[in-house]
Amino acid sequence: MSVMSWGMYPRIENTVLEFDGESDLREIFKKNETLIPFGNGRSYGDSALNRIILDVKSQNKFLEFDLEKGILGAQSGVLLSEILGVIVPNGWFLTVTPGTKLITLGGAIASDVHGKNHHIEGCFSECVLSFSIMMADGEIVSCSKETNPELFRATCGGMGLTGVILDAKISLTKINSKYINQTTIKNSNLRETFEAFEKYGDANYSVAWIDCLAKNESVGRSLLTIGEFRDDGNLDYHLQHKATVPNGFHSFMLNSLTVKLFNWFYYSKNRQMVSSKVVDIDTFFYPLDSIAHWNRIYGKNGFVQYQFILPLANSYSGLAEILKVIASSKKGSFLAVLKLYGEANDNYLSFPMKGYSLALDFKLEKGVFELIERLNDIVKKNHGRIYLAKDACVDEDTFSQGYEHIEAFRAMRKQYNMSSKFGSLQSKRVGI
């Protein structure tokens, strides 16, 4: 059985190994060369692809849940969706959550995921109290910000390249409702979008959809969405049923014309400049999770997601240039997400920094990689960086110039013999 990433690109024949406990995992280490841990297959590119893949989903037991303090312990293969099913009815929520709940706890740590509240809570590692990890030699090490802090910094955001995370303990956030008061602000260009982010900067959660095909005076027009949990005591949370995109979906339906029409409709249907409504957790945080196999809309060749971040001082000019390049290419994405981030942490490979990030999906077709090369040049020029959990094609130079701690990460990999045991297609491509 071979596995693919969520973007369905690149594709590689692989052997998938499962394990039952620590001794079994040690035996796998002894018998196999370079491997990479694989969670639920929701990373977009090749960060969890290799000839030998270690499937961790079977390691999915809950270990503890302190209802009073909001502390949860679980094995690394537990999905965030499974965690939500336990904690929300008890009045708790994930302190930091990405835009999908269908990732593993170990994957959340390895990617140091972030969400709509980075400007307030930071990355996922901020709520990680501790984790245990099996190193290349089979030793199990406990890590926290106080215990083995350097290994903690390398593993959070380290894309599975430091070892296999076995279990973790995280702190949660208290809530009193499964509902969110959502407000949407309509902005007619990039300047208005930036002003809206600043105006509503105190909101706990904020994210903007941006029309990346808009041109001229409309470049950067957007819908900024902010949210706050309600306080109505309704915690009756259940996982929702899904619609499904069928296998063999015809990708020709997704082209520059249909994307342009979708973007126009999506922007225009919000007639008021400011509108409000009440939505549930899944609608606000995980809208795409309601559509099973939504990646199939890009066809059998798959797609690449491109997510970059620019430092605050360069964000406006850099984004304006990038949006103009995308619009002129006619390869715009209807899934274009803009976020404002808070301060960077000191983990070696964590993605966020203080500034603006844009995430885009590009259908794999002629000219896409040439477009991405042009975008890479703009990102480099503006001292930005690329998110490894989304990446499928960044070159070593573009990647390395964006991460100031990259040499420390490489040195740790060499020091603890991690390079010979843990690796991915991505780690080889970017030189880590």
Distance between the termini: 27 Å
Q: Count of helical segments?
A: 13
Largest sheet: 8 strands, antiparallel
Q: What percent of residues are in strands?
A: 15-25%
The share of residues in helices is: 25-40%
CATH architecture label of the domain at 179-401: 2-Layer Sandwich
Query: What do we call the CATH topology of the domain at 179-401?
Result: Alpha-Beta Plaits
Radius of gyration: 21 Å
Shape: globular
List the helices and strands and how they pair.
Blueprint: E1 15-18, H1 22-31, E2 36-38, E3 52-55, E4 62-66, E5 71-75, H2 80-87, E6 92-94, H3 105-110, H4 118-121, E7 128-134, E8 140-143, H5 149-155, E9 164-174, E10 179-187, H6 190-199, E11 205-210, E12 222-229, E13 243-244, H7 256-268, E14 274-280, H8 281-285, E15 291-292, E16 303-311, H9 312-329, E17 336-341, E18 355-363, H10 368-381, E19 385-386, H11 396-401, H12 406-415, H13 425-430
Parallel strand pairs: 1-3, 2-3, 13-15
Antiparallel strand pairs: 4-5, 5-9, 6-9, 7-8, 7-9, 10-12, 10-14, 11-12, 11-17, 16-18, 16-19, 17-18
Helix pairs in contact: 9-10
